Amino acid sequence: MLVINHLNNDNKTAEELFAATNEQLLQDAKEWPMRTTEKCTILSVFIATVAFATAYTVPGCPNQDTGIPIFHSKPFFLVFILADVISPTLALTSVGIFFSILTSSFPLEDFKIYLFKNLKLGVICLVVSVTMMAVAFRATIVL
Fold first, then answer.
1. Which residues does 29 contact at the CB level (< 8 Å), separation at least 6?
2. Is 71:135 a contact under the CB 8 Å cutoff?
3. Residue 8 near residue 16, CB atoms below 8 Å
């Protein structure tokens, strides 16, 4: 397929003209995702820290003779373990995604596609991580 770039009288394509005339708009538009990403990064690190700490605090206490947790045969113990593994994993994944956004140079092409796709993916990972942490806490209450 043949693609023709139409040029104006100044030999600029529509995209080049838009980038040149709206440079300030692009700079202003970069501020919102950067602030959002910074705040979400801090929250993701906090969630990962809490979820990681709860992984070492097994509900109940271990059997003094065997070291195996007392609740290991209960079904909600498995729910706790699975939720507590998923939560820090997704929180650290969202931290990585947010760091990739923070270190991006924000060219116009990335801004249109890459930035908001990754921001949405990072927020989804963060929300699922918080949900899994809540599931783990509820499982400990049931135990």
1. 111
2. no
3. no
Amino acid at 15: E
User: What angle, rounded to 10 degrees, do the helices at 23-55 and 75-102 form?
Assistant: 150
CA distance 92 to 97: 9
DSSP 60: S
Phi and psi angles of residue 62, each rounded to the nearest 5 degrees, phi first: -75, 150
The CA distance from 106 to 76, in Å, is: 45
Q: Which residues touch 123 (CB under 8 Å, ≥6 apart)?
A: 40, 94
pLDDT tens track for 70-94: 777 888 888 988 998 999 999 999 9
